């Protein structure tokens, strides 16, 4: 989700496509809930069981980049991690001690048999009021890999309600190829609350953040601080302490409102092994792009000289036409320190050298579908178009969506927050607004084509499913079907960048057997 025109809830571009296959709405308060705040980065997995956690949500004043800000935190910290094992049943008690209502989404979790636990506010559930508690209960099923949890109401996660959700796999095919794990979170950071940023922002270009964060730390240039705002210079950066000779699995999660990054580590290459909870063919690169909501796992061997090296997450400029007129002090070169044990406690002087960067459209699934095994017939087809238009009456940029399927069509629609959850209205047979549409489908394969006519790329995330990327291109009226052909296996994931400008198109297909919810970033 974005906190501007790309932020689904606020800007009005959110489509809920709910499938009526024995769904029910369940919303209740916890009974005899217990909690656990244990987290780990070890490779070993505990036995399968019921895992119980508690997220106590509060407002707290924190300093992440040199400037103080009131944020919304879980258990008093940013990026509170949840660690479970494949097959675990999970119970998370969410205690809302904030002065606003909220909901929590488990990003990337399929929620098989429990779609009402997905957490999309007013789509699958009502809000958790201030002072109330809700226990989410769901199974991890057969899923493995790197996910995250976050608020799914308004723009709250931008202000801190978010964290990693890691599903450890005892059968991990790459388990023998790394020694330790490190979680890395990336985010853009705004000094004002996202609500205040949105109130003042009406235009097509994204509001620029003041800084970027790696594991909750950044460094703002205090020379740009607004009058009357205190700033602590040279804010400390995140340091990753590593041992020469060891191999590290980095689970990298982009929790940004809108920022995409290019990730690299000076003096080291990386082997990509996972994207969005799906094992990939091992692919060696020097750098890779990661868009909002996406996750990657890479293996890095600490085989360089004992020293300090820059860990770089270079923010892509989506905030200005030229890339030179952002005036709020944001440094697009977000950094942390990759420090070998035995190296001096000082900033690196290393130099970036990128020779091979990842092509996200060709990173195939490990042992996945090939051109000869992927289905050629579909039970259903959905054609989806995303447009930004200028409204002369309100002097604002308006986001609209057009969707065409065999059973439901709507044109030029903007999202309206419904008075009741869409899932509830669907089951009761109530009329729905244009932007909340039920598309009855049968179990089987669904073909989806997404067209982006905006002047920046957009990320599309699918709730409850992963999909295969089978076509991508930039065309005005026509896309050659199955344009992703030079791959051993097709990519499978739950979030994908759709190219910018007129006719940027992405084609995908998925198995449809549960609740489906599409978010636009």
From TrEMBL:
GO molecular function: copper ion binding; oxidoreductase activity
Pfam families named among the record's database cross-references: Cu-oxidase, Cu-oxidase_2, Cu-oxidase_3
Family annotation (PANTHER family): LACCASE, MULTI-COPPER OXIDASE
Protein's recorded name: Cu-oxidase-domain-containing protein
Location of the Plastocyanin-like domain: 62-171, 180-319, 428-499
Similarity remark: Belongs to the multicopper oxidase family.
InterPro entries: Cu-oxidase-like_N, Cu-oxidase_2nd, Cu-oxidase_C, Cu-oxidase_fam, Cupredoxin
Organism encoding this protein: Rhizoclosmatium globosum
Keywords, alphabetical: Copper, Membrane, Transmembrane, Transmembrane helix
Transmembrane regions listed in the UniProt entry: 7-29
């Amino acid at each position: 989700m974005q906190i501007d025109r790309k932020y689904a809830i606020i800007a009005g571009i959110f489509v809920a496509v709910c499938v009526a296959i024995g769904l029910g709405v369940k919303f209740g308060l916890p009974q005899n809930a217990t909690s656990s705040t244990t987290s780990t980065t070890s490779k070993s997995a505990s036995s399968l069981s019921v895992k119980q956690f508690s997220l106590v949500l509060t407002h707290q004043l924190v300093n992440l980049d040199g400037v103080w800000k009131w944020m919304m935190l879980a258990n008093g910290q940013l990026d509170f991690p949840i660690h479970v094992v494949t097959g675990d049943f999970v119970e998370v008690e969410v205690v809302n001690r904030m002065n606003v209502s909220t909901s929590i989404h488990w990003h990337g979790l399929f929620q098989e048999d429990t779609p009402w636990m997905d957490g999309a506010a007013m789509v699958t559930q009502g809000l958790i009021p201030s002072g109330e508690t809700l226990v989410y209960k769901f199974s991890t099923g057969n899923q493995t890999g790197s996910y995250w949890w976050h608020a799914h109401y308004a723009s709250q996660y931008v202000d801190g309600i978010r964290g990693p959700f890691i599903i450890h796999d005892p059968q991990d095919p790459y388990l023998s190829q790394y020694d330790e794990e490190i979680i890395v979170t990336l985010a853009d950071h705004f000094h004002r609350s996202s609500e205040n940023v949105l109130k003042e922002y009406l235009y097509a270009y994204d509001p620029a953040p003041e800084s970027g964060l790696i594991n909750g730390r950044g460094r703002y240039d205090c020379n740009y601080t607004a009058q009357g705002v205190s700033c602590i210079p040279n804010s400390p950066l995140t340091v990753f302490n590593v041992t020469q000779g060891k191999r590290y699995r980095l689970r990298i999660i982009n929790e940004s409102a809108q920022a995409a990054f290019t990730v690299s580590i000076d003096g080291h290459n990386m082997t990509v092994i996972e994207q969005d909870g799906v094992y990939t063919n091992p692919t060696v690169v020097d750098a890779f792009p990661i868009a909002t909501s996406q996750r990657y796992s890479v293996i890095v061997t600490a085989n360089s000289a004992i020293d300090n090296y820059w860990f770089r997450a270079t923010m892509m400029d989506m905030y200005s036409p030229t890339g030179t007129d952002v005036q709020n002090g944001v440094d697009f070169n977000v950094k942390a320190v990759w420090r070998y044990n035995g190296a001096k406690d000082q900033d690196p002087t290393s130099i970036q050298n990128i020779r091979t960067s990842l092509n996200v459209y060709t990173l195939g699934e490990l042992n996945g579908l090939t051109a000869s095994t992927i289905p050629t017939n579909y039970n259903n087809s959905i054609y989806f178009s995303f447009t930004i238009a200028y409204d002369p009456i309100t002097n604002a940029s308006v986001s609209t969506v057009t969707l065409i399927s065999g059973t439901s069509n709507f044109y030029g629609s903007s999202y309206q927050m419904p008075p009741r959850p869409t899932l509830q209205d669907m089951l009761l047979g109530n009329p729905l607004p244009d932007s909340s549409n039920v598309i009855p489908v049968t179990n089987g394969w669904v073909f989806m084509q997404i067209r982006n006519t905006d002047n920046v790329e957009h990320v599309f995330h699918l709730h409850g499913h992963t999909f295969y990327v089978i076509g991508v291109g930039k065309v005005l009226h026509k896309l050659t079907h199955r344009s992703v052909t030079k791959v051993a296996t097709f990519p499978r994931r739950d979030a994908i960048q759709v190219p910018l400008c007129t006719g940027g198109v992405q084609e995908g297909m998925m198995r449809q057997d549960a609740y489906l919810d599409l978010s636009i970033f």
